[in-house]
UniProtKB/TrEMBL annotation:
Belongs to the Cu-Zn superoxide dismutase family. Its main location: Golgi. Destroys radicals which are normally produced within the cells and which are toxic to biological systems. It comes from Rhinolophus ferrumequinum (Greater horseshoe bat). Binds 1 copper ion per subunit. Binds 1 zinc ion per subunit. Its EC number is 1.15.1.1. This is Superoxide dismutase [Cu-Zn].
Length: 243
């Protein structure tokens, strides 16, 4: 199986190196890379034996936990954001489900939104600054990176959100395991800022807090799912009382 993987990687190299001069050469190269990525992922899944019979089943589910801490290079006067980001991937190649649970935003930032992204490195030795740029394995523009999760609204200094259909992966050659989740001070302009930075990082501002995505068992996800359901119920009840 390994020689097959190597042969496939060679094909990728040839596909990306063999650009012709026709007007749609760039498009073709991108198509080739996507195509080969799908094939390499498929082979990787077979090599690692993660492709369970029937292509799924509970055994194929992957979970990660990421404990968000304030950036070590941040001034003490800056918001000290902490919390938890959990990912779940039900089967190899499936989109991700996620819980985002963060607190420590200034109370007056009610109604503001904060960008959250996956950055390239799981290196927090220089706070969140050493996590590098957005994770961008396919060389595309922001906000098409797999970890461009967009903006999250803050309410009473905290945010909690359940999201599904996220484009990132916990398996395969473009896995985000071991990389960083970064919480920004500002809002993501989603590539519409009209300057080069907008197409790299969405001009989302300082890096307030971050964490490294690490594999986990299913327990943190189960706890968070329960907490999420109860919290939604409490919010509904308080809204009913207020009405
Ligand atoms: Cu970012
Ligand atoms: Zn991005």
């Amino acid at each position: 199986m390994l020689p097959l993987l190597c042969a496939c990687l060679l094909l990728v190299a040839r596909a990306s190196g063999g650009s012709d001069v026709s007007s749609d050469a760039h498009f073709n190269t991108e198509e080739h890379i996507r195509d080969m990525h799908a094939k390499v992922t498929e082979i990787w899944q077979e090599v690692t034996g993660r492709q369970a019979a029937g292509g799924g089943g509970p055994d194929a589910t992957l979970y990660t936990a990421c404990h968000v801490r304030p950036s070590a290079t941040l001034d003490a006067s800056e918001p000290q954001v902490t919390g938890l980001v959990l990912f779940r991937q039900l089967a190899p190649g499936a989109r991700l489900d996620a819980f985002f649970e963060l607190e420590g935003f200034p109370a007056e930032s009610n109604g503001s939104s904060h960008a959250i992204h996956v950055h390239q490195f799981g290196d927090m030795s220089q706070g969140c600054e050493s996590t590098g740029p957005h994770y961008n394995p396919l060389g595309v523009q922001h906000p098409q990176h797999p970890g461009d999760f967009g903006n999250f609204p803050v309410r009473d200094g905290s945010l909690w959100k359940y999201r599904t259909g996220l484009a990132a992966s916990l398996s395969g050659p473009h896995s985000i395991v071991g990389r960083a989740v970064v919480v920004h001070a500002g809002e993501d302009d989603l590539g519409r800022g009209g300057n080069p930075a907008s197409l790299e990082n969405g001009n989302a501002g300082r890096r307030l807090a971050c964490c490294v995505v690490g594999l986990s068992g299913p327990a943190p996800w189960a706890r968070q799912a329960l907490e999420h359901t109860e919290r939604k119920k409490r919010r509904r009840e308080s809204e009913c009382k207020a009405a």
